[in-house]
Each structure stands twice: as structure tokens, then as C-alpha cells.
Write a structure and sequence with these properties.
Length: 338
């Protein structure tokens, strides 16, 4: 539910780099995402993109505010620009503005507000996330490399961040208000706290796996392992779970109280399981390490755990909550006028 929808796009061209930076508008204007119950805040509230004009043609004097550009003596008016944007993005953009209005109204009704410091903190987080996403998408290794590439087209990193922040300032406030309103409705049970504590601070099992499509394949593999075949090599070559296979079968650490953990909780490091059936296939799991539980008490980390649980509930409930606000609101649109 945090996927970026491929929707409305504007482009930020770094011509000397050959990098196309997608506009946040593509992320934010997807009505489809909202009605599928998706809860990525940027997709729902209208997060805009890191767009900045890096190269510009020579400025020509613009005689009045109604003229946005002059091309070889021909004027392009603000109305022409407005008509183009409405024709291209109008319906989706209007949905974003409606959802924003509903969030502001709900926050006022609930007596919820956000301080300047809170908004600034949220904005910094959004900017950081967007820069990191852009770097991953364009295979840029670190900030130094990004700044080097930006300087080639006449913009430094600070200017780049400022332009992103300008586009995201309203987004930060809207997301923060929605989060505060929703978290007021979230109640956390003792069972949830205990489960979260076990997952984060309880005993952990580090293990590797080989996953097969059929039991027969798994049985043949188990015979080979029992006579000394190398587990890591078989995982790399044979496992259908390619994510763990690429790591020689290494899995994310898990709790012995989890459904999978219960199947291997009796094993010592170096031992491997019998065949375990799941929805993903037939697994053979080798325990590599047992991590003892933390000595921190539940009460000492209660605040941290409550915040983690509330954030999870917020992400799960955001889409349905916004749908409910929309369904119960009186909205009259007047976008298309002849």
C-alpha cells in the first residue's frame, strides 16, 4: 500500500545527465489508488514532485501578469496555461484538493493542529525520502555523487532541496493533520503491545532457507543435505525464493513464537528442519544463530512500541478513512464549463 501509482506526470529534465525526475504529481493524483484503499499519503493528498527548471532560455520581458511567456513575439497567456493544466490534470488534481479540504475540515472539527516545528520536521522527512527515492531510481550512490551531477547542470544540492521542499510544504501539513486526527481514534490492546515487544525485543532466530515448488523436489534435496551437500550452494542454485536465494538462502530474522518460528524453535544452530509447507512452497530451513531476548522491559519501551503500532494502523486505515470522509461530504464539482 505504499506503491507509487503510474499516473499523471510532469517531467524535470536534467539534460546533461540524461536523468528524468518524475513529478510528485504522478504520485499524488491517482484517484484509482484511493478507491482501491491504498494508503500511501503522497498518493492521496497530492504530493508534488521534485521539479525544478535547471536550464532556462533567456528571459524576455513579460508585459503583464496575464502573459506567462513570449515565444518569438507570440504571447502565451495565463489562461492558456490554465486550460492546458485543467484539460490534462484537472479531474485528478481536483480530487486531491477535495481530499485536502476534507482533512483540514476534519482536523478543525477534532481540534487538531500542527505547530510550525512539527510541520518543518515532517517536511524534512518527506524531502529526505524523495531524494533517497530519486537516487535509488537513478542508481546514484550517495549525496556527493548527486551533488556532482547537479552541479553539471548549474544547481547545487541546497538549491535542489529547497525546490523540493517548496513543492512539499503543503503536503507535509496535510499528512501531519491526517495522521494526528486518525491516531486519536486508535486504541492499542495489551496483546498488540506484547506481540510487538516479542517481535522486536524477544528472542530472534537467524536462519537460511531453500524453497521448492513440489514436495518431491524438497525430499530429494533433503536427502542430499543429510549426506553433506552444501546448503548455501543449493539455496543459490535451486530455491524458488530468489530474494533469499541471492543471499545464499539467508532470511530475515524471526521470532520463535511466529508461525514459522514454531516449526524450527527446537533446532540448534547448524541444524536444519524437515520439510515445511507454506503458501509459498516447500521449505527446508537451517538455523544459523539464536539471539537472546533483550533485557529491556516492556514498560521501558512502551512508548516506542505504541508509536510503531499506531503508525501501522494509520497506514492501514488511511484509505478507508478518506473514502468515508468523501462519501459523507457534500461535494459539488464545477470543473468542466463550456
Amino acid at each position: 500500500m505504499s506503491l507509487y501509482p503510474e499516473d499523471t506526470q510532469t517531467f524535470y529534465l536534467l539534460s546533461k545527465l540524461g536523468i528524468i525526475m518524475k513529478n510528485f504529481v504522478k504520485v499524488c493524483l491517482s484517484v484509482v489508488f484511493l478507491f482501491l484503499g491504498m494508503s500511501y499519503p503522497g498518493a492521496i493528498f497530492g504530493r508534488e514532485s521534485n521539479t525544478a527548471k535547471v536550464t532556462e532560455s533567456k528571459q524576455q520581458p513579460v508585459p503583464n501578469r496575464d502573459v506567462v511567456a513570449i515565444v518569438n513575439g507570440q504571447e502565451i497567456t495565463r489562461q492558456e496555461l490554465s486550460d492546458l493544466l485543467i484539460d490534462t490534470y484537472g479531474e485528478d488534481a481536483l480530487e486531491v484538493l477535495i481530499r485536502r479540504a476534507l482533512v483540514y475540515q476534519e482536523a478543525e472539527k477534532e481540534g487538531v493542529s500542527a505547530t510550525r516545528d512539527e510541520i518543518e520536521q515532517k517536511l524534512n522527512k518527506l524531502v529526505s525520502e524523495e531524494v533517497e527515492a530519486l537516487m535509488r531510481a537513478n542508481k546514484i550512490q550517495d549525496k556527493a555523487e548527486l551533488e556532482k551531477e547537479l552541479l553539471k547542470v548549474g544547481i547545487n544540492y541546497e538549491q535542489f532541496e529547497e525546490k523540493i521542499a517548496k513543492k512539499l510544504s503543503r503536503q507535509a501539513e496535510v499528512e501531519l493533520l491526517a495522521e494526528k486526527v486518525m491516531k486519536k481514534t486508535i486504541t492499542i490492546t495489551d496483546e498488540e503491545l506484547r506481540r510487538a515487544y516479542d517481535q522486536i525485543y524477544g528472542e530472534r532466530i537467524e536462519a537460511s532457507q531453500i524453497v521448492y515448488r513440489t514436495r518431491r523436489e524438497a525430499e530429494e534435496a533433503l536427502k542430499k543435505l543429510r549426506i553433506g551437500a552444501d546448503f548455501e550452494t543449493m539455496a543459490r542454485n535451486e530455491s524458488i525464493d530468489r530474494a533469499s536465494a541471492a543471499r545464499g538462502g539467508k532470511m530475515q530474522a524471526f521470532n520463535p513464537k511466529d508461525s514459522l518460528g514454531k516449526e524450527v524453535a527446537h533446532l540448534k544452530p547448524g541444524e536444519f528442519s524437515d520439510i515445511i509447507r507454506t503458501d509459498y512452497g516447500y521449505h527446508i530451513i537451517k538455523v544459523t544463530k539464536r539471539q537472546a531476548a533483550s533485557n529491556k522491559s516492556l514498560d521501558s519501551v512502551r512508548g516506542e512500541l505504541e508509536n510503531i503500532i499506531k503508525n501501522r494502523h494509520y497506514r492501514e486505515r488511511l484509505g478507508p478513512w478518506l473514502i468515508s470522509l468523501t462519501e459523507n461530504a457534500f461535494v459539488r464539482k464545477n470543473l468542466n464549463q463550456d
